[in-house]
Amino acid sequence: MPDIQTSPPSPPASVEALGLRGSLFLAALLQAQQQRIPVAPTHAAALQVMDALQTQMLIQVPWPADRWTIRPDAQDTPIEGLQWAFTWTTHDPTHLLTAVEEQLQDWAGDAEFAVQRRALWDELARWESELFLEQQLLKHRFDARWARDIGFVFASAPGLPIARWRYCCWAAVRQGASVAQRQCTQAPALIREAIFEELKRRLRYLATAGPALGMFTPFACLPESAVARLYVTHLVPMGWDYWTAARPPL
């Protein structure tokens, strides 16, 4: 039997062919370069954004190496410091951000993309929650990597407003600090477990709490990262609802 030859995958032929997630992520990378803001809420989230763009053959990255030794066209994300190079030749990069933003606006009210818009909100909510937990851990001089533990409970409260996740993170880290002080211990495993258990306890509390309780909103309405800003300005205009409301309806 002759070998079946398969064609190598091709990059998208147009902006529309990027799809909703790809368009949002590409716009986030380009906007971050223009405005000197984070690509995504966390460093790990920025890696996921860039990995998705690499999979679509829009950019190249030096991974598993941290950086290329020599590559004249390489760029660095301004905040995360992640190196990448633009390889998509379908569009002129100079005008690409505007084209992608216009496409996102076209899809904003399209019922066909409602499920995808909600899935993106879930992704953003987890990243925003993990960022806030990282910040609280660093404030108390704990290991910021513990913030990844939120992934083990995130699916247990679908649609919980980001502001409520922030409240849970704040309360959980305070509990960890209390354990460290009360027991005069700096045992990382003990403190980390106390934080994780308090996170779960606060989630159970919010299941019966009033809608005005357990809300920690940031000082600014607009999210810090490019991917979140584009979401709330182009896909789902939300304002403060980005922080205080449940995920967008289908």
**Number of domains as seen in the coordinates:** 2
Question: Proportion of β residues?
Answer: under 5%
**What does the overall shape look like?**
globular
**Helix percentage range:** 40-55%
Which residues form runs of ≥5 with pLDDT under 50? none
* Structural class label: mainly alpha
> What is the ordering of alpha helices and beta strands?
HHEEEHHHHHH
As laid out across the biggest beta sheet, the strand order is 1-3-2
User: What's the Cα radius of gyration?
Assistant: 20 Å
Identify the quaternary structure here: single chain
User: Average pLDDT across residues?
Assistant: 92
Q: What's the tally of helices?
A: 8
DSSP summary, beta strand count: 3
Alpha-carbon distance between the two ends: 49 Å
Q: Care to describe what's here?
A:
A hairpin with a 6-residue loop joins strand 2 and strand 3 (83-86). The protein is mainly alpha-helical. It has eight helices and three strands; from the N terminus they run H-H-E-E-E-H-H-H-H-H-H. It has helices at residues 19-35, 43-55, 93-107, 114-139, 162-182, 188-206, 226-235, 241-244; strands at 59-60, 75-76, 83-86. The longest helix is centred in the middle third of the chain and has 26 residues, at 114-139. Helix content is 50%, strand content 3%. The mean pLDDT is 92. It folds into two domains: 16-107, Orthogonal Bundle (Arc Repressor Mutant, subunit A), CATH 1.10.10; 115-220, no CATH class.
